[in-house]
Design goal:
Radius of gyration: 14 Å
Strand order of the largest sheet: 2-1-3-4-5
Strand content: 15-25%
Shape: globular
Distance between the termini: 35 Å
Largest sheet: 5 strands, mixed
Structural class: alpha/beta
Number of strands: 5
Number of helices: 5
Order of helices and strands: HEEHHEHEEH
């Protein structure tokens, strides 16, 4: 198993934790030099906070751990392509690399709908890689929403 798949499996486990808590199953892990700086799952329902997406939770934890709002040299693994809000936070934090699982054809900001993470117009452009364990991430989301109906 390669490194990206390893960390995506960790993010998928976090997504399952979120699902158990009644949240949309998205998980995220922020790493640097092979160690975890932050991790999280979607928490907007539990925290009454619309910004508590998995990526934001992981970035906040990483910032606290690094004692810096800038997170150069980091990789963020997330099970779903980041939305515009999360993409903006990723750019502001100067995350070096974003690896995501499933593409989001409704709100993805790494090229699916919006091009925030891949834009040359911003002052920072992380390397992006999508589709890592996409089937597993997609199936988790589909099952969650089927159960809700």
């Amino acid at each position: 198993m390669n490194v990206d798949e390893h960390w995506m499996r960790v993010a998928l486990q976090l997504a399952v934790e979120g699902q158990r808590a009644g949240e949309v199953p998205v998980g995220a892990v922020l790493t640097k030099d092979g160690r975890v700086l932050g991790k999280g799952w979607n928490r907007p329902v539990a925290t009454h906070d619309p910004s508590a997406h998995a990526e934001i939770v992981a970035l906040r934890a990483g910032g606290r751990r690094q004692r810096n709002y800038r997170l150069p040299g980091t990789t963020l693994y997330v099970t779903l392509e980041p939305c515009v809000m999360c993409a903006g936070a990723i750019v502001q934090a100067r995350v070096e690399r974003v690896v995501f699982g499933a593409y989001d054809p409704k709100a993805g900001a790494a090229g699916s709908v919006f091009e925030v993470l891949v834009s040359d117009r911003l002052n920072h452009k992380p390397d992006c890689l999508g589709g890592i364990l996409a089937l597993q991430a997609s199936e988790l989301m589909k099952a969650f929403f089927q159960d809700r109906r």
